[in-house]
């Protein structure tokens, strides 16, 4: 792994940082309080190339690599984790899946729209009764006389569900054979039979819209099958590997923001006549925060670099992605917790962003594979046992 970033990587990082500080930071607290989707900012991020960083130029993207994506994601997440969530879904789950498994027509029509910010994408795998056990889904896709797909069922916890134009959907196309009967589809939410429920009232990432979606005799053209029939589950799991790098990046951004705020506070806040940063207990916490943040950052960059290498030469990066996601998400939770503690009463107040970092950090331990699932993925890869 080369620790020197390229000119292109540093350029997209700079673009993301500049946009985050000028456009996202000033409105982050207000959007969080209102639970308001940052549509205008998302559109502008698409125009800047941030909604399709790894998407080739011919499909409307920035044409960069996974490391560039991580660097940009960290900058956006440090400003607002909710905006980073939307960015992650568009980049990692929607565009990545279609780029890997879609045909040319699908890439031109659906990837371009999302990468340029013209439309919002979503990813629908989870159902009310199936979270970590994704193969236990009930949503059905059956063929009609014309060979088109008729979809019925519900999906839950769909990030950007209320505002998405296109969704990568997973449904049972051949019942009775478990994961081998799952297929993937590209859904247009403007067709009849689609319904988005109310937005979920979440603890954190409140400016990202999340809802349940329902399909009632929804007819999807046969050309909207993504990849081969019956290959949906393997597509979903492969896409989640990439998605975990995005969430690790988000967690690093949250952790960095909490850490940097704590450093400044430890210098400025005085107790007993001296800065609290001179107290050994504060110094101990800061040292541990720094170590966890650096470890999370480097493991996330390693996962991104490995993903880039596997795309060139073949191979897998699932273990590296799981290690990064587990380490970064738990670091974000721990660091934001300690940040609130060091800030004392002000850390608990909405006058400062620490309590938002703390609330936002928790979801990184849950979505796109809980910490428990990451440990299982890592242990299975290490032992060879299932």
Automatic annotation (TrEMBL):
It holds the Pfam family Acyl-CoA_dh_1. The keyword Chloroplast does not apply. Gene3D superfamilies: Acyl-CoA dehydrogenase/oxidase, N-terminal domain, Butyryl-CoA Dehydrogenase, subunit A, domain 2, Butyryl-CoA Dehydrogenase, subunit A, domain 3. The keyword Flavoprotein applies. Residues 230-381 form the Acyl-CoA dehydrogenase/oxidase C-terminal domain. PROSITE patterns: ACYL_COA_DH_1, ACYL_COA_DH_2. Residues 6-118 form the Acyl-CoA dehydrogenase/oxidase N-terminal domain. Transmembrane segments: none annotated. Residues 122-217 form the Acyl-CoA oxidase/dehydrogenase middle domain. Keywords: FAD, Flavoprotein, Oxidoreductase. It comes from the Bacteria. SUPFAM superfamilies: Acyl-CoA dehydrogenase C-terminal domain-like (SSF47203), Acyl-CoA dehydrogenase NM domain-like (SSF56645). Its cofactor is FAD. Belongs to the acyl-CoA dehydrogenase family. This is Acyl-CoA dehydrogenase. It comes from Rhodanobacter panaciterrae. The lineage of its organism: Bacteria, Pseudomonadati, Pseudomonadota, Gammaproteobacteria, Lysobacterales.
